[in-house]
Every structure is written in structure tokens, then in C-alpha cells.
Amino acid sequence: MSAPIIAPSVLAADFANLQRDVEMLNNSQADWIHVDIMDGIFVPNISFGIPVCQAIDKHAQKPLDVHLMIEQPDRYLEAFKEAGAEVLTVHYEACTHLHRTLQFIKSLGCKAGVALNPHTNVQLLKDTLADIDLVCLMSVNPGFGGQSFIENTYNKVKDLKEMINATGADTLIEIDGGVNAQNAPKLMEAGADVLVAGSFVFKSADPAGTIGELKAI
Ligand code: DX5
Ligand code: ZN
After folding, report:
1. Residue nearest to atom 1 of ligand 1 (CA)
2. I need a surface site. Which of 6, 133, 152, 175 has the fewest CB within 10 A?
3. What ligand has the least distance to the C-alpha of 177?
4. Mutate to test the pocket of ligand 1, among 6, 9, 69, 174 (most ligand atoms within 8 A of CB)
5. The whole model's pTM is what?
6. Is the distance from the beta carbon of residue 199 to the nearest atom of ligand 1 less than 6 Å?
7. Where are the domains of the chain?
8. Which of 31, 39, 131, 176 is catalytic?
9. Active-site residue 21, yes or no?
């Protein structure tokens, strides 16, 4: 079991001090910066869009892991690539032609990610797994930070890990929602590679120290 890739979510940052918080991430053991885009249609909340992603990118010294919780994501993939995305994750539930979308993300030179809502079975990715660089398993219903972790996620991680091993793909498993120091060791044991953490990092007294704590798991 290797060390987790830590991707703090700036959704829980102080938006009035984004530069300060991004610089804190630059100086921490964070590996990626997770950027949550919500359109108010796919999810019942609006976060921020392309100009804010650009502003984060201007100060970030780490890869932007952009999680698109939006309908018809194909319309904006190029714009988010231009805004600094290195990982571009779309939702399975929002893509009618997922295979085409994945090829397009790769043609932009980004890593292609697919996120699954808690109710979506991992087996649905069997036929596209070889084309997916990262699967983001939602461990809360997307739309808000600070929700509690859904325990069934461990089963999904195990099932997905088995599928990945069986196909010989090198797809990374990312967990997003309610991640903390209690569930992180179990997630890593089950086969996770990337841990997203919003509230647990930014609401702690020492965010950089908390990132170090997750990295040491
Ligand atoms: C939820 C977002 C998450 C969120 C995680 O819709 O996709 O990335 O920021 O926040 P926490 O860690 O607070 O659950
Ligand atoms: Zn996210």
C-alpha cells in the first residue's frame, strides 16, 4: 500500500482569501488541488466557474483536479483545460456518450476521470475502464461539502479495485466526500489511491498539518 495522493478541496476554503489558501496548499504535502464545479442543475448547488478556476490556477503550484458536477460537461471541457485543469472528471450520470467524452478529454492532454454517484454501480464502467485514468467514487451525494461519509463506499472501492486488477488497467481510485483521518486508513486498505478532503482539512485548526496527517496514512 503506497501513500495516498492527497487532493484538498478548495470548496471548503475561504473564498475571500483564495490566494492565501492556495499558497497554504502549495506549501503543504498536498499533491493535487481539487476544484469542485457545480451548475445548480446536475447538483442542487452552485459553487463557482471558469474565472475562479483560472484564478486558482494562477497561484497553484500543484495540478488542478477539476470535478465537473454539471450537465452536458462536453460543452465546457476545453474551457476548463484552458483554465488549468490537469485532471478533468465528468459524472457518469451526466454523459450520454461517455466513451466519446473520455477520448475528447484525452485529446486535450488531460487525465480523464469519471465520477460515480453513491447509487451508481461500479460495474457500469467495465467497458470503459481501459480508457479511464481515474474513477472518483462519491462517498456523499454531490452538491455540498461537510456531509457524512457513506459506509457502503468501502464495498465499492473493493469491487472497483478487483475490476481494475482483473483488466490490468492502471486506473486510480479517488474518494470524494466526508473523508477524514478515521475512514482514510480503511479506504486505503480497500484499494483507494487518491483522497479528496474539504472540511476535514480547511475547518481544522492547522490545515497544512491535517494534510500531513492524511498523507502519513
Ligand atoms: C461534494 C464535492 C466534494 C466536497 C468534499 O459535492 O464534490 O469534493 O468538496 O467536501 P468534504 O470533504 O467536506 O465532504
Ligand atoms: Zn469533488
Report:
1. 142
2. 152
3. 1
4. 9
5. 0.98
6. yes
7. 5-215
8. 176
9. no
- Output the pLDDT for position 2: 87
Give the dihedral of Cα atoms 159, 163, 166, 172; nearest 10 deg: -110
Q: What is the dihedral of CA 166, 169, 175, 176, to 10 degrees?
A: -130
- Give the Å distances, CA to CA, from 170 to 83, 134, 193: 26, 9, 11
Give me the phi and psi of 198, to 5 degrees please. Answer: -105, -85
**Nearest alpha carbon to residue 21 among 65, 55, 49:** 55
Domain 5-215 CATH assignment equals 3.30.450.20: no
pLDDT (tens digit, 9 = 90+) per residue, 36-76? 999 999 999 999 999 999 999 999 999 999 999 999 999 99
Distances from the Cα of 65 to the Cα of 7, 8, 113, 174, 186, angstroms: 8, 10, 9, 11, 23
Dig out the grid coordinates for 83 from the structure: 483554465
